[in-house]
């Protein structure tokens, strides 16, 4: 890395109790792990996933980072921000066609110096194939590849560091799950007797297999985690009225603006499961925001 990096990172991220009569009625305590406050440009699991990848890129003497994502991918923006703060050039390979003007996320990535390139959905699905990677190297020169969502063994390593930051007694850590990298890492880092629960933000039953594969790649498969696929609200980036209403109500009640793509689905799931008596009274949950 060729610069001193961003201003001071808020690590460990704050732990705040969520006071909510619905949780009290269920006999539960919920602590919010405020990873969303780590840094405005590098919030939450994005910093955790990038941390060791940035070190590997610097150690390999790479000057360019290349990553993948959709038009509203936080991975695209976080990689652009990491490049800006740590002195890397950045390339974002975006799924789909270019739309002008750029949406606010891509516009901010471009403002931070990222070169954006667009591929069709078929080529995006084949992004890990050698032929696709060779073509990208020819086009953009030598670069360090960070996979979509930061989901590799180094991303898992960064997420595995999260449980050690939780100093209050707890039983379960909950997180929102896209690629499954955060869940894979958190489960690896858990002390004995604790469990992790991931709330899928995408529709489908593939996530458990992805989490298991990431843990195997890291070399530490565990059995202390599970995936809930009920609260996807129609699929990735879908915003049905009930989800929009939930985000607004949560903000009014607690002063926290939840990300509707990820954390809002997790919190909606936690409250719904609490109402059903899913956890025994006296259980303490840690919900990761960011």
Describe this structure in words.
- With 290 residues, the protein is α/β, with parallel strands linked by helices.
- The chain has 2 domains: 15-43 and 152-289, Rossmann fold (3-Layer(aba) Sandwich), CATH 3.40.50.1100; 63-142, Rossmann fold, CATH 3.40.50.
- Helices cover 40% and strands 18% of the residues.
- It contains 11 helices and 10 strands.
- The chain has helices at 21-26, 44-59, 74-86, 104-111, 121-125, 130-140, 153-160, 181-189, 207-218, 241-254, 263-275; strands at residues 15-18, 29-34, 64-69, 89-95, 115-119, 144-146, 172-177, 195-200, 225-228, 284-289.
- The strands form 2 sheets. It has a 6-stranded mixed beta sheet. Strands 5-4-3-6 form a 4-stranded parallel beta sheet.
- α7 packs across α8 (181-189).
- The longest helix has 16 residues, at 44-59.
- It is globular, with a radius of gyration of 19 Å.
- The mean pLDDT is 94.
Structural key phrases:
290 residues, alpha/beta, Rossmann fold, 2 domains, six-stranded mixed β-sheet, four-stranded parallel β-sheet, 11 helices
> What's the total number of strands?
10
| Annotated CATH topology of the largest domain | Rossmann fold
Strand order of the largest sheet: 1-2-10-7-8-9
> Gap between N and C termini, in Å?
24 Å
| Number of domain units | 2
Which stretches are low in confidence, meaning pLDDT under 50 for 5 or more residues running?
none
Number of helices: 11
Helix amount: 25-40%
Which percent band covers the strand fraction?
A: 15-25%
- Structural category is alpha/beta
What is the annotated CATH architecture of the largest domain? 3-Layer(aba) Sandwich
Written as H for each helix and E for each strand, in order along the chain, the element string is: EHEHEHEHEHHEHEHEHEHHE
């Amino acid at each position: 890395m060729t610069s001193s990096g961003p201003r001071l990172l808020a690590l460990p991220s704050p732990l705040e109790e969520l006071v909510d009569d619905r949780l009290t009625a269920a006999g539960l305590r919920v602590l919010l792990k405020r990873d969303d406050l780590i840094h405005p440009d590098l919030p939450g699991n994005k910093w955790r996933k990038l941390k060791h990848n940035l070190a590997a890129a610097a150690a390999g003497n790479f000057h360019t980072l290349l990553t993948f994502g959709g038009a509203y991918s936080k991975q695209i923006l976080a990689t652009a921000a990491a490049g800006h703060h740590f002195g890397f050039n950045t390339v974002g390979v975006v799924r789909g066609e270019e739309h002008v003007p750029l949406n606010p996320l891509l516009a901010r990535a471009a403002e931070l110096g990222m070169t954006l390139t667009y591929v069709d959905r078929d080529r995006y699905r084949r992004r890990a194939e050698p032929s696709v990677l060779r073509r990208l190297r020819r086009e953009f020169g030598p670069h360090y590849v960070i996979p979509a969502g930061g989901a590799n063994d180094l991303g898992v390593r960064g997420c595995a560091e999260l449980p050690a930051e939780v100093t209050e007694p707890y039983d379960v850590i909950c997180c929102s799950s896209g690629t499954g990298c955060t869940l894979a890492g958190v489960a690896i880092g858990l002390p004995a007797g604790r469990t992790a629960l991931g709330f899928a933000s995408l529709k489908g039953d593939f996530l458990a297999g992805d989490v298991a594969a990431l843990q195997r790649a890291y070399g530490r498969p565990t059995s202390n985690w599970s995936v809930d696929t009920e609260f996807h609200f129609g699929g990735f980036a879908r915003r049905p009225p009930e989800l929009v209403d939930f985000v607004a109500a949560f903000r009014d009640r607690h002063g926290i603006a939840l990300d509707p793509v990820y954390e809002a689905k997790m919190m909606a799931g936690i409250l719904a499961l609490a109402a059903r008596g899913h956890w025994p009274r006296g259980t303490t949950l840690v919900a990761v925001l960011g």
